[in-house]
Every structure is written in structure tokens, then in C-alpha cells.
Amino acid sequence: MSENWTTANIPGQHGRVAVVTGANTGLGYETAKALAERGASVVLAVRDVAKGKAAAARMTGDVTVQALDLTSLDSVRTAAAALRSRLGRIDLLINNAGVMYTPKRTTRDGFELQFGTNHLGHFALTGLLLDRMLPVPGSRVVTVSSTGHRIRAAIHFDDLHWQRSYGRAAAYGQSKLANLMFTYELQRRLAAHGTTIAVAAHPGLSSTELARNTPAAFRVPITWLAPLLAQTPAMGALPTLRAATDPATLGGQYYGPGGRRQIKGHPRLVTSSPASYEVAVQQRLWSVSEDLTGVTFPVIEPHRHPIPAGPATR
């Protein structure tokens, strides 16, 4: 296994189709750009189509744009229908888009913004596109989480949308924990099909626009420290790209930077928090997510058995 994995390690992607959410800037842009350069046909699924087209114009290869607003289930359904009509297959679905530390707001469907965008929007999109992936050997659903999933590491079923009290960091942590639990439960359900796998990744600390909603009290120290601690978006995208393309990747694995505290560095297998591996909570979150989105998946419910914690997951 390469200790210094880079885009040079990405196998040729000719003939493969990739859908990348939030791909007009930051990590999503770098992910889509690298896949297109290696020959994939890439769809930038973005909220702002004009910015998406501008991003596509800066890339080399077969790159198109699809409107997608993850804060609206109507938009997710419309986007999924459009993608299904134009794509006979999907090899890679990369759930990258997200919001972080936003002030208290809700999506158009009344969900807390971070949970609704980061988890529920991607949950619905994946369920609506999965039948375009299941017949495709080697297809992958890659969902981008964060080390922030350890912040108050719990799914607050008694107040999922933080109506009683709101902490923007804790709400972000819940959404990123949900990303991991979704990945692990999805992999368990996919295992019987033997074609598609679910994998997760996180970028460490990267210099992107995602942190624009950081509270003012932390903005100054972050501004000063970021150049010393953070890595470029291109480096931050490497864990996602490895999860998406490394032939050795297995379902249920989690990639992150290999440096100290997973802040930066070349991608390697990492371990998520103990809470993220709680099967009963994963199952409950899945059921709640189906109820909230109205989306069910074309995969059977598996026998209950835990995914082992740690980078040696099989």
C-alpha cells in the first residue's frame, strides 16, 4: 500500500461515469478535476449552475453540470430524475457537498440546515440513484465526513433538528457522524449484491470556503494558524480520490490524511469514533432518514452484524 498516494496513483478512469456533489469549488472541484483528467465522464452536481459551468470550463475532459440543491428534497428528486434520464450507469457517486457551522437555519423541508444538507440530502440522492450503480461492477458511493464527527458524538434523536437549543459545532458534528453511520449501514446492505461498495473519507484541515461560517471568536486564530496547519484543497481531496479509485479499497473503509492527528498528509486508512460503529444507532438513523426523506433504497435489509472498528475492516 502506497504511503505517499497522490493523483498519479489513480488508475485510468476511461469509460467510468462520476457524479460529484458540490464540485464547483474546493474539495469537490479538485476531486472532479482529477477524475476528469484520468478519463472519467464527470457530472458536477451543484446548486449554482453558472458557477458549475465556470468550474467545468477550467477542467480538462468530459465534464457536464447538473443543478442540485441539497437543501430541497424537490430539487434532489428533480436532479436524480435528470441524471437517471441521461446516464445509463453511474460508477462513482461522491457525496462531497456540505455546509459547516452555519447559524441556526432550516432547509426548505424544515430540517436543521447542516443535518438536512450534509446527511439527508445525500441520503435521498443516493437512494434515488443507486439502481444506476448496482449493475455496475466496481461502482462506489463515497461520502465525505470530517474529524468533526467526534464533536458531541451522538445522533440526537430526541431533537434531531435542534429546536430546543442550537450549537452550530455540535449540529455539524451530528451531521458528519450521520455521514459515517450512513456509509457503514449502506455497506452492510450492499454486501449481498457484490457490485457496489460504500466508503467514507475526510479531508483533514483544508483551506476551503467551508469554514466561512466559523464563529467570529475563532475566525482570527484560524486565519493566522490555517497557513501553518491546513493543506491545500488538492491535498484535502486525496482521501476522497483514494476511496473512489484505489483498487485495494474495500467497502466500509474510511480514508483520511496520514499525518499527526489526521490534520494533513497523504491519505491512508483511518478509524472513526467508537460511536460511529454502533449498529443499532445506524439502523435507527436509517429508518428515521427514510421517514424524513420518503426515499427507500433498492437493497435488502441485512442480517445484523457489526462492521469491525479500525482500518483493517473487511
From TrEMBL:
<dbReference type="InterPro" id="IPR036291">
    <property type="entry name" value="NAD(P)-bd_dom_sf"/>
</dbReference>
<protein>
    <submittedName>
        <fullName>NAD(P)-dependent dehydrogenase (Short-subunit alcohol dehydrogenase family)</fullName>
    </submittedName>
</protein>
<comment type="similarity">
    <text>Belongs to the short-chain dehydrogenases/reductases (SDR) family.</text>
</comment>
<keyword id="KW-0560">Oxidoreductase</keyword>
<dbReference type="Pfam" id="PF00106">
    <property type="entry name" value="adh_short"/>
</dbReference>
<dbReference type="InterPro" id="IPR002347">
    <property type="entry name" value="SDR_fam"/>
</dbReference>
<dbReference type="GO" id="GO:0016491">
    <property type="term" value="F:oxidoreductase activity"/>
</dbReference>
